[in-house]
Amino acid sequence: MTVATREVEKKEANLHHGVERTRAKRVYTPAVDIIEKNEEIYLLADMPGVDNESVEVTLEKDTLTIYGKVEPEIPDGLRLTESEYGVGDYQRTFTLSEEIDREKIQASVKNGVLRLTLPKAEAVKTRKIPVKAEA
C-alpha cells in the first residue's frame, strides 16, 4: 500500500499597497479551516509557536484580523547555523457578514491552533416554523 504525502509549505503574507511593517520579520498566512454549523461558525487557524500571550484578535467594523507573534527559540549560548523551517509572525484578515453576532465572538488557543467561535445572529439562525392544522 502506498501512502500519499503532501508537502506543506508556509505561504508568506502579501503586503497590500502602501502597507509597511514595523518589524523586520517574515509574516506568514496561517492555514485556516472554516466549519459552519447551525448556530455558529468555527475558524481554526494553524499558527505554530503562538500562545495566548502572543496572539491578537481584533475586530474593526466588518474586518476581523488575527495576528500571532513568534520568536525563534534558540537556546542560550548557541547560534542558529541552518534553518529549514521559516520562523515568522502570522497574520490573516477576514471580512465578516452581517450574520455574525459580533458581541459574542470567542477566541482560544491550544498547541499553536487558534480557535474562533463566531456565533450566528438570531435573525439568521435556522428555526423550525410550526405548522397548524386547519379545521
What does this structure look like?
It is a single chain. By secondary structure, the chain is mainly β. The chain has a domain at 38-72 and 88-125: Immunoglobulin-like (Sandwich), CATH 2.60.40.790. It is built from no helices and 9 strands. The strands form 2 sheets. The chain has a 5-stranded mixed beta sheet with strand order 1-2-7-6-5, with no helix packed on it. A 4-stranded antiparallel beta sheet has the order 3-4-9-8, with no helix packed on it. Strand 5 and strand 6 (63-68) form a beta hairpin. It starts with 10 loop residues before the first strand and ends in a 16-residue tail after the last strand. The mean pLDDT is 83.
Task: Give a topology summary.
Layout: E1 11-12, E2 27-29, E3 32-36, E4 40-46, E5 55-60, E6 63-68, E7 89-95, E8 106-110, E9 113-119
Parallel strand pairs: 2-7
Antiparallel strand pairs: 1-2, 3-4, 4-9, 5-6, 6-7, 8-9
Give the mean pLDDT: 83
Strand order of the largest sheet: 1-2-7-6-5
Give the helices and strands as they follow along the chain: EEEEEEEEE
Main beta sheet, described?
A: 5 strands, mixed
| CATH topology title of the domain at 38-72 and 88-125 | Immunoglobulin-like
Strand content: 35-45%
Return Rg in Å. 20 Å
Give me the count of strands.
Answer: 9
